[in-house]
Amino acid sequence: MNTTRKTNRAAAMLLTIAMFIGMFCIADATTASAETNKVSLYYSDVTFSHWGSETYEVFVQTKDNANDQEVFVHYYANIASGWRDAEAEYVTTLGDGSKIWKANFSTLGCKYAIKYVADGVTYWDNNNGSDYTGAKLGTAPVAAKRDFYSYNHTEYQISAVLQNYAYNKNVFVRYTTDGWNTYNDKALGYSATNSDGTEIWMTNINISDIKSYADYDNFEYAICYQVNGTEYWANYFGSNYGMDYYISL
Question: Burial level of 81, CB count in 10 A (0-12/13-18/19+)?
Answer without folding.
Answer: exposed
